[in-house]
Amino acid sequence: MQLLKQLCAIHAPAGNEIGLKNFLLDYIEEHKSQWKIQPEIYHGKGFQDCIILKFGKPRTAIYAHMDSIGFTVKYGKDLVKIGGPVLEEGTKLVGKDSKGEIETELVVIEEENGKKHPQYLSDREIDRGTELVYKPNWREDEDFVQCCYMDNRLGVWSTLQVAKELENGIIAFSCWEEHGGGSVGYLAKFIYEKWGVTQNLISDITWVTEGVRHGEGVAISMRDSGIPRRTYLNKIIQLAEESGVNYQLEVEGAGGSDGNQLQQSPYPMDWVFVGAPEDNVHSANEKVHKKDIKAMVELYKYLMDKL
Predict the structure, then answer these.
(1) CA atoms in the 13 A half-sphere facing the CB of 95
(2) Whole-number Å distance between alpha carbons of 20 and 48
């Protein structure tokens, strides 16, 4: 779990994923010689801060978004949300501006209409436009790991485990997912036009609910705010059943992922969200069961081999 702990501590809110991109490129360069297949690496011009890894003769692509939620400093001590962070009074926030390192706390102002307004607590004014993110507080026991940004550093971590043995496939590390997306369209275009790949899996983290529980396996989402094509979804569920890996079926009417961006692209892309469930979503205390993490990696390995 040391790598996951490192990933959760990297400053990479939506729109500023460069720190995580550089970390991943260094990690891949250092470890790829130990992988079964040496991937072709695509990044830089035309990819903004995204990364594509191509292994062998790909049939399926995994998308994992690198960005996290957070806050942007507005004027005075006001904050603007990046994505949908939970507003919990006293949550520790960190960042850096022209005056140096920042550690502050979240202040939640409740207006007359009941709407909550975020501010920061500090003796000095922070440069406007500075990004503040949750301060990492890693906790681990026999059953659980808990920290900020399991969504989606765990999805990134999972794909890196799959990469070790992947013979044929694509891994796409995307940006901006938490704040409306935007990178998946051109990644899908590149992948489709270069390799003709139309099968996709979304390596992301979902919610613990009354229907999806800790420790009962990785979640296969039958739908959220987007609806995957049923023929492809059925294929994924059938393979999951054959794999023997513990899984749960999720049905939600809200939430979304890089899959929504694929569905809106002008390419015939199939996608299904497959990810471990977490508690305390979009807070500084996201919590995931280790059994579900193991199931996530095992199912991805099986799917990438069989699809």
Answers:
(1) 27
(2) 13
Q: What's the rounded Cα separation, in Å, for the pair 223 and 229?
A: 10
* pLDDT value of residue 126: 97
Q: What phi, psi does 245 have (nearest 5°)?
A: -80, 140
Distance, in Å, from the CA atom of 182 to the CA atom of 266, rounded to the nearest integer, reads: 13
Considering the chain, tell me which residue range(s) the CATH 3.40.630.10 domain(s) occupy: 2-68+139-306
Beta-carbon contacts of 307 under 8 Å, excluding residues fewer than 6 positions away, are: 59, 60, 199, 235, 239
Cis peptide preceding 285, ω within 30 of 0: no
* Angle of the 150-163 helix axis to the 290-306 helix axis, nearest 10: 50
* CATH label, 71-134, candidates 3.10.150.10, 2.40.30.40, 3.40.50.720, 3.40.50.970: 2.40.30.40
267 alpha carbon, distance to own chain's centre? 23
pTM of the model: 0.97
How many other C-beta atoms are found inside a 10 Å radius of the C-beta of residue 193? Answer: 10
Could you name the CATH architecture of 2-68+139-306? 3-Layer(aba) Sandwich (3.40)
Distance from chain centroid for Cα 218:
15
**d(Cα 200, Cα 307) in Å, to the nearest integer?**
10
Phi, psi at 285, each rounded to 5°? -130, 40
∠ CA 40-199-39, nearest 5°, is: 10
Q: Each residue of 199-223: pLDDT tens digit?
A: 999 999 999 999 999 999 999 999 9
Where in the sequence of the chain do the CATH 2.40.30.40 domains occur? 71-134
Closest CA to 62 of 208, 191, 176, 248: 191
Tens of pLDDT, residue by residue over 88-107, are 999 999 999 999 999 999 99
For the chain, residues with pLDDT lower than 70 are none
